[in-house]
């Protein structure tokens, strides 16, 4: 790709994920069942690496959210299979920008009876935030750039890059 710039190397990403895993382990010591819910598709890369570094026993599930372009309404395209009643849920997403989908998911899992719902994101694009949503575990704060690699895609391509970058305009 022409004008592609690396923002976070593979080594930097893995180091930060290890730190986040340790923080989650510390916070969830002796707190009961934890369900890690990965937001499809980009969040899977981060979720898997995060879970591999955690000592806390967790179960894994996925969810997919879509929005209707005509009215910006959010809906669940693929819901979780796990029963979260009385359990701790950690929603894992590759990036948060507007915050709308993560707030929607947090409310959804609370309505399903989750004991606690926390959010972990690899990239925080806070300057794009439209609604107030607590992000409990943040990897990196990033500027408003279109990201590629490590789960981030352009027409479903480049997710497999082991680092995260952007195209300089």
Beta content comes to 25-35%
- Main pleated sheet: 6 strands, mixed
How many domain modules? 1
In total, how many beta strands? 9
What class do helices, strands and sheet pairing give? alpha/beta
What would you report as the Rg, rounded to the nearest angstrom?
Answer: 16 Å
CATH class equals Alpha Beta
Low-confidence stretches: none
**Helix and strand run:** EHEHEEEHEEEE
Gap between N and C termini, in Å?
12 Å
- Main β-sheet, spatial strand arrangement: 4-3-2-5-6-7
Tell me what the CATH architecture is.
Answer: 3-Layer(aba) Sandwich
CATH topology: Rossmann fold
Record the SSE blueprint:
Elements: E1 4-8, H1 10-27, E2 34-39, H2 43-53, E3 58-67, E4 74-78, E5 88-96, H3 100-111, E6 116-124, E7 137-141, E8 147-148, E9 164-167
Helix pairs in contact: 1-2
Explain the overall architecture.
This protein is α/β, with parallel strands linked by helices and 169 residues long. It has one domain (10-66, 73-141): Rossmann fold. It is 24% helix and 33% strand. It is built from 3 helices and 9 strands. The protein has helices at residues 10-27, 43-53, 100-111; strands at residues 4-8, 34-39, 58-67, 74-78, 88-96, 116-124, 137-141, 147-148, 164-167. A 6-stranded mixed β-sheet has the order 4-3-2-5-6-7, with helices on both faces. Helix 2 links the parallel strand 2 and strand 3. Helix 1 packs across helix 2. The protein is globular and about 50 Å long. The mean pLDDT is 93.
């Amino acid at each position: 790709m022409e004008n592609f710039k690396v923002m976070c190397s593979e080594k930097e990403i893995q180091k930060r994920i290890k730190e986040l895993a340790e923080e989650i382990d510390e916070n969830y010591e002796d707190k009961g069942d934890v369900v890690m819910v990965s937001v499809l598709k980009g969040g899977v890369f981060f979720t898997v690496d995060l879970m591999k570094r955690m000592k806390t026993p967790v179960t894994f599930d996925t969810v997919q959210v879509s929005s209707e372009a005509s009215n910006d309404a959010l809906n669940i395209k693929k819901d979780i299979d796990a029963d979260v009643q009385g359990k701790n849920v950690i929603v894992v997403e590759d990036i948060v920008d507007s915050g709308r989908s993560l707030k929607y998911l947090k409310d959804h899992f609370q309505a399903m009876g989750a004991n606690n719902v926390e959010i972990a994101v690899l990239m925080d694009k806070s300057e794009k935030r439209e609604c107030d949503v607590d992000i409990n575990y943040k990897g990196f704060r990033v500027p408003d750039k279109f990201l590629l690699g490590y789960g981030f895609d352009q027409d479903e391509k480049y997710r497999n890059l082991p680092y995260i970058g952007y195209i300089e305009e």
